[in-house]
Automatic annotation (TrEMBL):
Gene3D superfamilies: MFS general substrate transporter like domains (1.20.1250.20). The lineage of its organism: Eukaryota, Fungi, Dikarya, Ascomycota, Pezizomycotina. This is Major facilitator superfamily (MFS) profile domain-containing protein. GO terms for molecular function: transmembrane transporter activity. The keyword Metal-binding does not apply. Residues 256-444 form the Major facilitator superfamily (MFS) profile domain. Residues 1-13, 26-39 have a biased composition (Basic and acidic residues). It is a multi-pass membrane protein. It comes from the Eukaryota. Residues 1-43 are annotated as: Disordered. Belongs to the major facilitator superfamily. Monocarboxylate porter (TC 2.A.1.13) family. It is found in: Membrane. The chain crosses the membrane at residues 55-76, 96-118, 125-144, 150-174, 181-203, 215-236, 257-277, 292-309, 321-341, 347-370, 382-401, 413-434. It comes from Cladophialophora chaetospira. Keywords: Membrane, Transmembrane, Transmembrane helix.
Length: 444
């Protein structure tokens, strides 16, 4: 396993040597070693390269990790549509949505739980295990014919695999970038939008000619090829001097952090509803034909590519709170905008704008934990706690929207999404006030 030597203590004394020396001698011998380790760790953080070939190769690797994690989540609407109208047509949309919800939930939950594993130096293990499970799960999905088989293969196997990959995609970049971290994160996160744009097109273009099973196998081969890149180029630069805690209880004493996690949770309950149901909505309302409806998912995810880049650049200048709060409000407004769109051009326009602002929510929300962590060593822990809350939101959100769709129609489902985003923004306003006051123009 790759374990950067400068931050992993080595036992330089044998047991016999230790026993032969007195307590005072041990103190004199060990203290310089401990100080050397701490200085090495400190220097590693203080001398973050912020550029260079090796640093940008990590961005390339992280890009393909996002492509195969959040990209698959963004593309789930293509699966939802096919399962609803064909393979699982005897099931309700709410039941089918559990497949994508479990996958998304495990991405965040396993990603949070594997933080200490990453800190312990098992980066390569996570990368290989996660890549293998994603590819294996996709191939198993291609041969599945029953609901429980698809749930196990796509929901659990792919979900756990993406969770193993998510921590490296986020944690590694902060050791290579400082002032350019938001730019690096935005470029990496754009992989999810590109994956969510390309994969539905691949599935829908290949399905009529080679069938759904081979279309999914093609996606599996794409994942195999693209995941080879991070496995080849990504390298651990340094690790924390101590393993990360799973929970930082002191974080809950800060109202700003508590409100941030709550706002994060509420927004994520509804943010992916349009991604799951946009194709079915367009087909039912006659806004697109069966041959063109799948492009609407590509439109939303295409908009999210820009949403993961542009707002990150602005956030670096004016502050993350000052960007994500307006983006949440606008995402909520455009979620309501799907209700009653009169023609295909209108739904395309609303889809692009919703994709842009929802992409900003997904990209910026996790990095707010950095701003709310006074102790750098606790950044990973606090981010993991926020991810755990978001994983619960992702688990319940799409099925709840599906239940609303079953009983009250698409207007209720999209309205639910809009309310969640706007209410999440209101909660983040309170978090911002607790963190830095009510002054609107202050960089926060």
């Amino acid at each position: 396993m790759e374990k950067p030597a400068q931050l992993i203590p080595e036992k330089k004394k044998s047991l016999n040597q230790t026993e032969s020396k007195g307590l005072s001698s041990e103190a004199h011998d060990d203290a310089p070693e401990e100080r050397e380790e701490k200085v090495s760790a400190s220097n590693g953080i203080d001398t973050i390269p912020d550029s260079g070939m090796q640093a940008w190769l990590q961005v390339l690797g992280a890009f393909f990790l996002w492509f195969n994690t959040w990209g698959l989540i963004n593309a789930y609407g293509a699966f939802q549509s096919y399962y609803t109208v064909d393979l699982l047509r005897h099931m309700t949309p709410s039941a089918i949505a559990w497949i994508g919800s479990v996958q998304a939930c495990l991405l965040l939950l396993v990603g949070a739980l594997t933080g200490p594993v990453f800190d312990a130096g098992y980066f390569r293990t996570l990368l290989i295990l996660g890549s293998s499970m994603v590819v294996f799960g996709l191939f198993m999905t291609s041969i599945a014919t029953e609901y429980w088989q698809i749930l196990l293969a796509q929901g659990f196997c792919v979900g756990i695999g993406t969770g193993c990959l998510f921590t490296p995609s986020v944690a590694l970049l902060s050791t290579y970038f400082s002032s350019k971290l938001m730019i690096a994160m935005g470029l990496a996160a754009s992989g999810s939008g590109i994956g969510g744009t390309l994969l539905p097109i691949v599935i829908h273009r290949l399905q009529p000619s080679i069938g759904f099973p081979w279309a999914i196998r093609t996606v599996g081969f794409i994942s195999l090829g693209t995941l080879a890149v991070p496995n080849a180029v990504m390298r651990v630069r340094l690790l924390p001097p101590a393993r990360r805690k799973l929970v930082d209880l002191s974080a809950w004493k800060g109202p700003a952090y508590c409100l941030y996690v709550l706002g994060f949770f509420v927004a994520f309950v509804g943010v992916f509803t349009p991604y799951f149901y946009i194709e079915l909505y367009a087909l039912e309302r006659g806004l697109a034909s069966a041959e063109t409806a799948f492009y609407l998912l590509a439109v939303i995810t295409g908009g999210s590519i820009l949403g993961r880049l542009g707002p990150n650049l602005v956030a670096a200048k004016i502050g993350m709170y000052n960007v994500i709060i307006p983006c949440m409000i606008l995402a909520g407004i455009f979620a309501f905008g799907f209700i009653g769109v009169p023609n295909p051009s209108s739904i395309i326009m609303v889809g692009v704008l919703y994709g842009f602002f929802s992409g900003a929510i997904v990209s910026i929300s996790p990095t707010l934990a950095v701003q709310l962590s006074p102790n750098r060593a606790m950044i990973g822990t606090r981010m993991g706690m926020a991810f755990s809350a978001a994983s619960a939101a992702m688990l319940i959100g799409p099925p709840v929207a599906g239940k609303l769709l079953d009983e009250h129609g698409f207007d209720a489902a999209f309205g639910f999404s809009g309310v969640c985003s706007i209410f999440g923004a209101v909660i983040l306003c309170a978090s911002r006030a607790c963190h830095g006051g009510w002054r609107v123009m202050k960089k926060l």
